[in-house]
Amino acid sequence: MHLKTHTDDVFRRHVSSYLEPAIIHSWNAKQCTALQSLTEEDQVIIGGDMCADSPGRSAKYGCYSVMNMQRNQIIDIQLVQSNKVGGSNHMEKEGLRRSLELLEGSGVKVESIITERRPRVQKFLSEREMKHYYDVRQMAKGLSKKLHRLGKDSNCGQVKKWHKSIINHLYWCAVGCASGAEKVSRWKSILNHIQDIHIHSDPAFPKCLHRTRVSKDPNKWFKPGTAALKRLERVLTTKRFLRDVENLSPHYQTSSLESFHSELLRSAPKDAVLPFIGRLCRLYLAAMHYNENADRPRKRPSNGYPLLFPEAKNGGHPGKLVKKEPTNFYVFNLIHLVFTEVVHDPQPFVCAVMLIDEPQDKPALDDAVAACATLQ
């Protein structure tokens, strides 16, 4: 067809000269406004999580996202390169450290933070004496896998009957407790409950709160001293698990952050080979899109809510709430910024890009030659 189009070099030149500076300027302005408003609040609850390349891919970059849980708003994104922090295992801690330094430098008073159970993150936040909560769903997910494996054993068939109830009990323990010790007491009471014992010796939780009922299936109760009960007790009362139950989040969870990470995969796929600034700009675009559409209203379809049959629900059929179509006003604002300001005077915007500490993938040629010479 003999169609003419721009080459990749021309595209990269336009992107680096106009689009990327406009995206970074727009994100910095929105972030500054958000942080300024947070300085006026006394109790800010944040959530943090990292999205990184999975094993088998490059595992070069890790994106650490911080969300204001009360507003359901992304307030910071840190892109960490693994070989600059000593390996991919250190990316999450480094991203969290950078984000907390930014929040503290901006005058934001963080009341607590909600994350997954990562030992490095636990130790880091403990040293900073920050109130740290754990996401309940992630703990329930790990526990569910252990219960599923245990229920497959021939002498542990009763575990299958209690699987869902035990997971629901974990969620119930996370809310409505005045202290972490009460959460642990409620959690340990499940061992009595599954034996049809509803009066407990722990004064923090002396008895079950449900009404007395006659079971239709008397065979579901565990017998004291059986091998199945002992094995289940070992799963439910490990030292680390009880310690983490004490710190279960009583209010917000990181499910919103996981929704944002799903949006990240659309803007910056894990298998896409992108330069550092290029990937960072895509992350900023995803954050602006999420912040604009996170709390958009729901709509009711004319034929009712659709039912889903996800494999993870093991036969469950939850209804899916449908939201209105997302908007893209941030895109029109970026286009307006490019053609009214950046094109006419790109230098101030390019200077803002140059202030970003971009890690270099390759050393200078002279340094590489000198390093090889010292090895010989």
TrEMBL record:
<protein>
    <submittedName>
        <fullName>Si:dkeyp-30e7.2</fullName>
    </submittedName>
</protein>
